[in-house]
Each structure stands twice: as structure tokens, then as C-alpha cells.
Amino acid sequence: MNRLTTHFAPGEPAWVELCTARPDQAEAFFRDLMGWTVRREQLGQGSYRICEADGHDVAGIIDAALLHSGRRHGWITYFAVDEMESAISRAISLGATVLLEPRHLPAAGTGATIVDPHGAVLGLYEAGARAGVETLNSIGSLCWNEISTGDPAGTAAFYGALFGFTTDQLRSTMGQPYSVLKLEGRPVAGLLALESSWPNEIPARWVPYFNVAALDDSIEQVVNLGGASVLGPVSSPNGPLHVVHDSEENPLYLIELESSLRTPRPHRLVRQDSMAEPRTTPLFDSREFRDACGQFPTGVTAVTAVTADGRLAALTVNSFTSVSLDPPQVLFCLATSSSSFSVLEVAQRISVHILREDQEDLARRFATSGLSGEAKLEGVEWASGPDGVPIIENTAATLVGHPGQLITSGDHVIILVDVDEVHHKPSQLTALGFHRGRFLIPGS
Ligand SMILES: Cc1cc2nc3c(=O)[nH]c(=O)nc-3n(C[C@H](O)[C@H](O)[C@H](O)COP(=O)(O)O)c2cc1C
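That is the input. Now the predicted structure with flavin mononucleotide docked in place:
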């Protein structure tokens, strides 16, 4: 059976849901404010509303009467878990209480709602048919989740023990101490310390951030729609932001996102069955297969990538192809045995450079195994692009983007890249080619 597994690592915020006493009003408010379209799915006696931005699921709206005996909880952040029962037991042993026992929705997965020891309501989500939000960081979608708490040390300790978060201390742009919660060096959520002499008297709270195209216009709309501007605009390293209340006084952040807070890993699904044994034994050996494929002449690209914690990869790739014009997407295939794999599988940004006829040396250097990405880039002329991804100078063309789906197949993984930047200068020089195991200059 094809089992699709999500690439939201356990502990990553995977979904957000507005638990409201007035779902119709909430739907109208967010449709107008965020430009969401809302579809309904049957849930028991009622319906669950799924909000879409540009055709991607970004959030849910639930009637508090349906699941929470009418008690509205505002925005609930759901965290991905591998195995619900053990996650719940761990949370309880750390002082959490269960608000809503795990419930399985065949169209989605298994969700549960708990309260942390400091009073913050949160969800746990074991992915089934759906991984969670289908896009991160794009306009109208979730880009960050933050807990505000009067007991930052206790809160960090609870989530550290529950999900394995490590904590990086920063100073908040709002003057309050701020920490970034990380999973394997990747920022996944924030922790804002509330000024409070009675820490546990003020319940902690998870608040989502949504990206908007024009912050000032959105704030005006919030007010026109019956919400309120609470604090802002505040300039943050990731763009100007504003704390607002929706029409039911649920807090949320709107941000005009300039650089990603979180590595976008939406709908990066891996087909696990494709790792299965081949159905038949081929009547040729791998050398013959390689030689046959080598009859196909290709261009040559140099791929560079950066992770959220600044690790670099660089390698030569000729399995490049364009996939989609709208939205612009390309792909390449990467051997899972490649030492670049550990960087590319969690890359924040990827650049694909179509090499010029005078860049054979670079192609050879980038194909040297046993060298780190950083070492391959030494002596190569490159500049730092978005999120620090290396952009090599003087290529035939360069495509910069975010990694999309990763699909494992046999001993390779197909990496899709959603391209958002293109560099292309007209030149007399042609592109570098590769045919029958040799570099060549097409036409010569
Ligand atoms: C012309 C050429 C094309 C290549 N294309 C690919 C490719 O499409 N996918 C891949 O995984 N490796 C490809 N390689 C091999 C990688 O460049 C090489 O394995 C890698 O750079 C070795 O370093 P690594 O272990 O850091 O990946 C190609 C090599 C050459 C010379």
C-alpha cells in the first residue's frame, strides 16, 4: 500500500485551528481578511471548516459546541507526533492534562487536545491522510507559532522534554526576552516571556502568525471587520508585524514576512513503498543501464543548498529538468548515498545553476566525493543569496527556490524545487554538456 508519511518532524507545528463559539462569523472574518476560501467537511453532527489560501489547506475552524462543550479556546496550535498514545502519556507525565481524548478522522489523521502545565491549550496530531498545513510562509498562510508564558524556563523545560526542542535565547523586538525553539538546529517555534510577577496566574498561550501582503491594509481591515489592533506595527528581523484580535477577541499575529522564520517543508511526502524490491530481476547489469542512459546528452548543473543552521551543500547534477511553468518548478534526482543528502533533505533554500561551457573545472570540483559543500565552494566565485544560499557567478542561468516535495524512489530521491528567483544574463557562451560520460561543448 502507498503510505504517505509527512515530513513534519515530531514536535513541529503542523496545523492550526480556530476553536470558536461563532464559526459563521469567524469564517466571514477570515475569508475577508486573509482571502481564504473555506470548505466544509462532515465531523460528527456538524462540520469542520478547512481554510485554503491559493488552493492549499492552511487552517481549520471548529465550532466549540461540537467538540469542546461550547468552551472556545481561540487559535490552537497542533504539533506533529509520531505515535499519539506515547505522546499523550509523555505529556501527562510532564504535568499536562487531556482536554479532548484522541479522535481519529479518516480524512485527516488523529488529533487530541491537551493543556500544558502553564495553562496553554495545544493540539497533538498524528498524520494520516493529511500531513497538516499544505503551505508555510506564503501569503495568507501560517508562518510561525509562538507561546507567550509567564514562566519561560518552566515552559521551555516542558516542551524540551515533550518534543526535544532546544532553546536559543534572543532579545525580542518588543523588549521582552524571546527564545527560539529548535529541532535539530531548525527553528520551529518561538517563546515570548510575559512580564509577570505571578507567572502561573496568567495562562500561557500559543498564538499563530499569518503572512499578509500589506500589513497596513490588513490592520485597517481587521478593524473594519470588527476586530482590534492590539500592538504594532513592530519591526522584527523577519518583517513588520502586528498583534491583533479577531472579532471574538482571539489574539493572532499578522506579519509582512520578509524572510522565512521556519523552513518551509509543506507537503513534502515520501512514498515509502517505492523503496520496495523491484518486481522483476532486470536482464542487464547496472553498467549496461548506466551506459544506455548515458546515450542521452544533457546539460550540466551545479546545485547548492543551505540549511536553517547554515550548513552548505554543492554538487554536480545532470538529472535536472523543468517541471511546471505556473507555478515555476524544477526537479533533480539525488543519490541517497551522496554525502550532500543530509543537507539537501532539510535544505531551506536551493540554487540550481546551469553551467556555461567555461565551467567544466567547477563541474569536476563539485563532483568530487569526500569534500564538504564548504570545501567544494573554496576558490569558486559565489555570493550569498536568500537565506545564505550560495549563488555562483557567471552561470548560463541560476534558479533559486524552496524545496518542495521529496519523493524517494529506489536509490535516489526526486527533489522538487519551487523557484522564486531567476538570474539569467545573455552571453555569447553556450552551456556545458555531458554525453557518454564526457563533458562537451554542444555544437563544437
Ligand atoms: C556530469 C555529472 C552529473 C551528475 N549528476 C548527478 C545527479 O543527477 N544526481 C546525483 O546524485 N549525483 C550526480 N552526480 C554525482 C555527484 O556530483 C557526486 O556524487 C557528488 O558531487 C559527490 O559528492 P557528494 O557525496 O557530496 O554528493 C553527477 C556527476 C557528474 C560528473
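Residues 300, 315-319, 332-335, 338-340, 366-367, 369, 434 surround flavin mononucleotide (CB under 6 Å).
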